[in-house]
Amino acid sequence: MQVIDVYTKKAYTCKKCNGEIYYGKITDDKGNIYTVDGHMPNGKYGKETNVISGAVDALVKDRLHECSKHYVEEAIAKAPAPPTGGGVKIPEKTTFANFQAEYVNEADRVQWNDVVAKVVELTILAQKKLDEYPEITNPALKGLITNQAFAVWSSIKESQRNG
Ligand SMILES: [Zn+2]
Asked: What is the pTM of this model?
């Protein structure tokens, strides 16, 4: 069981513990979305949707919120097998465990890993910041803003070094 498509646009308050929660769709381990009728998600919202959703903690969005977890588990237990073939597929992980670099030396490898790790952290921070702006939902726009921020930030860094 996994939670996907967490609706980050709006935070809700748990009626039981007052904790901040979001809602996401529930899938099986293969990424097929559970629906109450076993049909494909009908694309509707609110009471008309057939998608089974569950509350997650605001900070840990892949884990079901403790207070309402049992409702979700009950709903999933009652639900027919989720429709396959149209759900959001979670890609299988590719492993590079046996990869040996031929052209990249040790020093470059270490430096490159540092650069990538730094970019990953900056991207996560950018995503967290972007989540504060519910107006911006388009992933392409988010990517554009993040790239712009990288460009502006590196020129600031550059001028700090030179100045
Ligand atoms: Zn709660």
From this structure: 0.50
